Amino acid sequence: MRSRGVIKALGYIGAAALGLFAVSSVLLSRHQESHPDSSRGQRAADETILKKLEGIEQRVREIVKTLEQSQQRGAEQRPKEPEPQPQPQPKKVLHKKLFPNSFLFSKWGGDLSEEEQKEAQQLFEQFGYNVFLSDRLPLNRSLPDTRDPKCATKVYPKDLPTISVVLIYLDEALSIIKRAIRSVIGRTPAHLLKEIVLVDDHSTNEDLSGKLDEYIFSIHQEKPDLIKRVRHQERLGLAHARISGWEAAVGDVVAIFDAHIEVHNQWAEPLLARIKADRTVVVSPVFDRVNYDTLDVTAYGAAAHAFDWQLWCMYESFRPEWYKLNDKSEPGKSPSVMGILVADRLFLGEIGVLDKGMQVYGGENVELGIRVWTCGGSIEVVPCSKIAHIERSHKPYARDLSVPLKRNALRVAEVWMDEFKTNVLVSWNLPLENHGIDIGDVTERKKLREKLKCKPFKWYMDNVYPQLDTWEDLVAYGVMQNDLSDKFCIDQGPVPGSVPILYQCHFYGPQICYYRQSGEIYIGGIKSHKYNNNRCLVDPGEGHVPGLHDCKLAKEKGFHMHWNFKQGQAVRNRSTKRCLEIAQGRDSYYQLVIQTCSGQHWRIQHLIKDL
Ligand SMILES: *[C@@H]1O[C@H](CO)[C@@H](O)[C@H](O)[C@H]1NC(C)=O
Ligand SMILES: *[C@@H]1O[C@H](CO)[C@@H](O)[C@H](O)[C@H]1NC(C)=O
Ligand SMILES: [Mn+2]
């Protein structure tokens, strides 16, 4: 009786843990933008998952222990808690922590009164960063010089192009925008700063009208007409907002930034010098991270800006040539920009600025990257130019950013990716035909591509972004279901772990499978980059438990990892004569097993080539 109760509890919590994993893996992919470099970021993400699961395991162990103890003790009295010892009175008043689980207070705010905590937490939830603290820091606070030491010794020409700085915002905190303006004025040579263009994509907080007007008025006492304003009467989305900032700008060069930034000393000169030397280069500064809770600056090294097949942006190493230079102050070529971009104003216009058909958030930066490279320009990240950028805990555009990103990514694929557009559909687990998502009208963008005589996407893959895996021999993808039970799907199973399972279908990442021409079956995702490893279904050769192992490792160890499969037929390895099947365990639930083929049939959701 007793052990059964415990097992039930375990089973239930195990399922909850799996559910949590499904959700957390989805959430994590959403935050890739924030990671300093892809591999480091991914590792950190994996570690977070591991920690979470370890935490859950620990909880399970504790619960099991408690259950056992309480059952052993039966009606016995619980041992008495030790009497609390009188504590020496601290001199400082200690306030109760009202939000012990809020990320805002994990490192900050220990000395806040309860009233202050409430205010700070409310502002944090509204804006995604510490507005309470921002309101109390000087607008002209100094920032640490995080550049490579060589940068400070560089000398730039005096006669550089002028620059218009466009700050885009949507419901940003007033003090954050003021600090951005203050830093741009204070740290850009006055003869180069043509103007600051504020673009308000229809914010709703009232601070951003009256009080911001007052601040601008005070700046105009000293620098008349330095600040221009563009206000949208309805929300147009990030791409559109950026375009309207470009349209309002008149400087030789336009810099399009988020408004939750502060520029570092000498941020503009290296960018302007690069554009003066070659007007077809679109450049990006390097962002340092401003932590959303403490507003401290964490230095980031320079890295290329890139993306995966879903078009989430991410950091990536530069091409090998950059490392051979052995000079961290030198600009590096980059497949794309992350959103912050600086370009010759007229050149940006000639190649089509940004795609006005993009909605809400995401994808427009990748579209720009591919377009610049394939239509005659290039993109560079310039290490001597640094911007401190707040990584918000959440973004205001949409609760689930994957919805607009998916739609915008399909647009990019349709216009720019030729035969590789399949990969975007595959990565979002959409069918190749009739995916049912309205991507808007793309005829103008297709015409633009023709007019500019842009190179094919294959050229971009070969020459600009060879780290991206072409997925050329992929034949099928999606969830895999067995004829005998269509409520259940193959699932990667507990993580960490190496045993795939059968689990109620939820259609999230952990259940998506990929079948390659080589006979490999991946479970729980496919990596976009050649340097990352996938996890392959393996027949361990003995016993009935299937395995799921890093494919490269499995190959080295000589595991049986090649499967014959046709739609609606068996999944089988001919040489071992065994099949992936399902069988009822002692508890009468179906389990995933490897056994002598009994004629079971599998279906995979989508086919790329006929199977
Ligand atoms: C900020 O401005 C104040 C008042 O103008 C000035 O006294 C102070 O030195 C400035 N601080 C920095 C770091 O520039
Ligand atoms: C079955 O497994 C063996 C050993 O891994 C492998 O050499 C063989 O190619 C597999 N059979 C098929 C049809 O993939
Ligand atoms: Mn941002």
Automatic annotation (TrEMBL):
<dbReference type="GO" id="GO:0006493">
    <property type="term" value="P:protein O-linked glycosylation"/>
</dbReference>
<keyword id="KW-0464">Manganese</keyword>
<keyword id="KW-0479">Metal-binding</keyword>
<keyword id="KW-0812">Transmembrane</keyword>
<keyword id="KW-0325">Glycoprotein</keyword>
<dbReference type="InterPro" id="IPR035992">
    <property type="entry name" value="Ricin_B-like_lectins"/>
</dbReference>
<keyword id="KW-1133">Transmembrane helix</keyword>
<keyword id="KW-0472">Membrane</keyword>
<feature type="domain" description="Ricin B lectin">
    <location>
        <begin position="476"/>
        <end position="605"/>
    </location>
</feature>
<keyword id="KW-0430">Lectin</keyword>
<dbReference type="InterPro" id="IPR000772">
    <property type="entry name" value="Ricin_B_lectin"/>
</dbReference>
<dbReference type="GO" id="GO:0030246">
    <property type="term" value="F:carbohydrate binding"/>
</dbReference>
<dbReference type="InterPro" id="IPR029044">
    <property type="entry name" value="Nucleotide-diphossugar_trans"/>
</dbReference>
<dbReference type="GO" id="GO:0004653">
    <property type="term" value="F:polypeptide N-acetylgalactosaminyltransferase activity"/>
</dbReference>
<comment type="pathway">
    <text>Protein modification; protein glycosylation.</text>
</comment>
<feature type="region of interest" description="Disordered">
    <location>
        <begin position="68"/>
        <end position="93"/>
    </location>
</feature>
<keyword id="KW-0328">Glycosyltransferase</keyword>
<keyword id="KW-0333">Golgi apparatus</keyword>
<dbReference type="InterPro" id="IPR001173">
    <property type="entry name" value="Glyco_trans_2-like"/>
</dbReference>
<dbReference type="GO" id="GO:0046872">
    <property type="term" value="F:metal ion binding"/>
</dbReference>
<keyword id="KW-0735">Signal-anchor</keyword>
<dbReference type="InterPro" id="IPR045885">
    <property type="entry name" value="GalNAc-T"/>
</dbReference>
<comment type="similarity">
    <text>Belongs to the glycosyltransferase 2 family. GalNAc-T subfamily.</text>
</comment>
<keyword id="KW-1015">Disulfide bond</keyword>
<dbReference type="Pfam" id="PF00652">
    <property type="entry name" value="Ricin_B_lectin"/>
</dbReference>
<dbReference type="GO" id="GO:0000139">
    <property type="term" value="C:Golgi membrane"/>
</dbReference>
<dbReference type="Pfam" id="PF00535">
    <property type="entry name" value="Glycos_transf_2"/>
</dbReference>
<keyword id="KW-0808">Transferase</keyword>
<protein>
    <recommendedName>
        <fullName>Polypeptide N-acetylgalactosaminyltransferase</fullName>
        <ecNumber>2.4.1.-</ecNumber>
    </recommendedName>
</protein>
